[in-house]
Amino acid sequence: EFKDVLDYDGIWIDMNEPSNFMRGQIPGCADTEINNPPYTPSISDRSLAEKTLCPDSKTYLGDHYNTHSLFGWAQTEPTFNAVKQATGKRPYVLSRSTFVGSGKHTAHWLGDNFSLWKDLRRSVIGIMEFNLFGIPFIGADICGFNYNTTYELCLRWMQLGSFYPFSRNHN
């Protein structure tokens, strides 16, 4: 029914990791091996529950530990199909959370970066990596999302960003 109120070209799905603004849940994650594995990737605070659910949380498909990365992927195909059915047009879906091969149904952006020269450089690496993951329609927040940018940084980032497959200034 919404398409009859407002003609739209696409849908932007954000915060679909699932994410939250704390570690795990209240009163915290249980002290179990799945919540505290012997190896954790180099992520903030070295915790798999940082700004998301505890790894031992249950989902429809099993433990969050095993399904976290599939969460966004499981939203993009149904969204793509719903927009296609509602509009009768080729859908445009942009998702913050993706998985290998998600490019069949969605575009992606590299997330909330910073207005720093190192983030400009990292954007090139991220875009190339996501092409390898089967997500060719990819871009970064040009000029950075967090912090205030400088004239020189934003100018150079706009020049670089003109070559991104998905290009937008989000500062």
Automatic annotation (TrEMBL):
| The entry's keywords | Glycosidase, Hydrolase, Signal
Classification via Pfam families: Glyco_hydro_31_2nd
GO biological process terms, alphabetically, are: carbohydrate metabolic process
Recorded hits in PROSITE patterns, A to Z, give:
GLYCOSYL_HYDROL_F31_1 (PS00129), GLYCOSYL_HYDROL_F31_2 (PS00707)
Q: Which domain of life is it from?
A: Eukaryota
SUPFAM superfamilies associated with the record: (Trans)glycosidases (SSF51445)
Q: Which GO terms describe its molecular function?
A: alpha-1,4-glucosidase activity
Q: Tell me which InterPro entries the record gives.
A: GH, Glyco_hydro_31_AS, Glyco_hydro_31_CS, Glyco_hydro_31_TIM
Domain Glycoside hydrolase family 31 TIM barrel: start-end pairs:
6-171
Which family is it part of? Belongs to the glycosyl hydrolase 31 family.
Q: What is this protein called?
A: MGA protein
Query: To which species is this protein native?
Result: Spizella passerina
